[in-house]
Q: What sequence folds into this?
């Protein structure tokens, strides 16, 4: 019996006294135990593991989102599984009304998208969730100040990725929904829908058709992507796509709804 605390190399209060760069550098330098090491502190069991450390980092990101956003580039050299944990925590920060600087976050997202095989597929699902939540949240300059970068990320998330079959991709520690490539693209489509709604609300849409590069990727999804999660997303958001580009949707009704 008793309470089991999970943690990384140090306890949470010790980590709180360190700056974000120092803490995230441990994701690079700390090897962790070969298996979960168990300590007993004041009668309570503590399990020391990478997952325990990831949970501590979640807490720290929630407390100091701006500092951890500025330091996120350090994760490029760390165990790749830390990345989706941290990105998901920034989603939570936005849901709680928090703010953080977007440029370092977008730069990290671009790194993941440029080398998808280095990271779990779940990591790109987390990016889709983060971009979508950022668009929906009341952020001062997002996505307004980063239109081109955001659109490039959205296109990449919705597109089929060629992963090297001989290279073993890291497996997410989180698991659950969003761990397959098909679900990554589904979340990419959802994020595109959030972006289109935002464009419409801010009078940024062309009157009758979608602009590139989003039109091209949406057409490719409708005509070539047969994955069930993708078809589900296209059907679910049909009204949005119809509203922004009737010509495109009318031309592909048979693709969307095969008889």
A:
């Amino acid at each position: 019996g008793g309470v089991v605390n999970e943690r990384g190399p140090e306890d949470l209060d010790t980590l709180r006294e360190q700056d974000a760069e120092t803490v995230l550098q441990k994701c690079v330098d700390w090897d962790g135990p070969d298996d979960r090491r168990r300590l007993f502190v004041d009668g309570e069991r503590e399990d020391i593991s990478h997952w325990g450390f990831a949970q501590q980092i979640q807490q720290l990101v929630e407390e100091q989102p701006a500092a951890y956003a500025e330091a996120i580039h350090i994760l490029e050299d760390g165990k790749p599984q830390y990345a989706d944990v941290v990105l998901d925590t920034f989603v939570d920060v936005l849901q709680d009304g928090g703010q953080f600087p977007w440029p370092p976050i977008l730069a990290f997202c671009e790194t993941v998208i440029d080398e998808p095989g280095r990271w779990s597929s779940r990591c790109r699902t987390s990016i889709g969730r983060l971009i979508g939540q950022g668009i929906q949240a009341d952020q001062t300059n997002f996505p307004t100040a980063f239109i081109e970068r955001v659109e490039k990320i959205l296109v990449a998330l919705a597109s089929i990725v060629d992963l090297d079959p001989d290279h073993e991709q890291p497996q997410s520690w989180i698991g659950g929904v969003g761990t397959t490539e098909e679900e990554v693209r589904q979340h990419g489509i959802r994020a595109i829908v959030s972006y289109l709604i935002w464009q419409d609300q801010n009078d940024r849409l062309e009157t009758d058709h979608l602009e590139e590069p989003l039109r091209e990727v949406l057409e490719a999804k409708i005509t070539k992507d047969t994955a069930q999660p993708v078809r589900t997303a296209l059907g679910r958001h049909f009204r949005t796509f119809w509203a922004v580009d009737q010509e495109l949707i009318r031309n592909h009704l048979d693709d969307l709804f095969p008889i």
Summary: The mean pLDDT is 92.
